[in-house]
Design brief:
Length: about 130
Amino acid sequence: MLACTELITMCLQSAKHEHLRKQQELDLNQNPGTALFQDIFRRADKNDDGKLSLEEFQSYFTDGILTDAQMQEMYYSVDRQQTDNLDIDVLSEYFTPHLGEYVNVMSALEKLNVAILRAMDKTKEEI
C-alpha cells in the first residue's frame, strides 16, 4: 500500500508532466521550433521561477569549453539590464534567431516529442 506522501508525490509529478505537455503543445502551435529550446531553459531553472540566475545558467550550461568568464559574458550579453534573472522567454527570443535552418529540425523534434508523450499517456491509461 502506498504511503500518503508517495501518493501525493505521484499526483504532483503527474500534474507537472501534464502541465509541461500542454505547455509544449501550446508553444509548438505558437512558436514552431522553439518549444524544445524553452524546455531546455525550463530544465535549467532549478527553482521553477521562470527565470535563470547566473548560477543556474552556469550550472546547467557549463561544458568545459567556455570559461566561467565567457559564460558570465554570454549571460550578461542577454541580461542587458543586469537583473541577474533572465526570463525564459527572453532567453528563447535571444537565441532563436541563431537557430537558422535548425529551426525546422527543432520543430520536427518537437512534433515527435509531443507524439511520444501522447503515446506514453495513452499507454499509461491502458495499464
